[in-house]
Amino acid sequence: MFIKMFFSDLIFALFLYQLTLSSSVSKVQLYKVLVEFFAFAFYLYSVCYVSEELDTCNVKIERAFGNSGWIKCSGKTCLDLCFLIRRVQRPNHLRFYQGFIVLSRSYYLKVVKASYSMVNFMRLNVN
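^ thats the sequence. predicted structure below, dont judge the formating
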C-alpha cells in the first residue's frame, strides 16, 4: 500500500504540473486534464476523509464506553469489554508500515504542499 500511496502522490504532482503548462495545450486537452486532476484530488481527499471519520467514530465509541455503566456487567462481559476499550483508546486512522504513513487531512495537506513545491521546482528548471 505504501507504493500505491507514493505513486498517488506522484500522480497528483504530475497532474498539477500539467495544469501549469497549459499555454501550448488545446482547450479540450486542458479541460480533460482539469477534470482528471479534480477527480484524482477528490479520490485522494476522500480516502483521507474516510480515515478521519474512522478516527471520529473511534472517539465516539470511547465516549460511549465512558458514559455507560459497563463496570456493572458480569465478570466475563467486563473482561471482553476491556479488550474493546483498550482498542478504542488509541487513534484509529488508516496507516501503513506501522504508522509510517498515517492517512488524515494533514497528510492530504502535506501532499498538496509537496506537489506545489515540486511543480515550482520543475518550472524553475524548465525556464
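Residues 2-126 form one domain.
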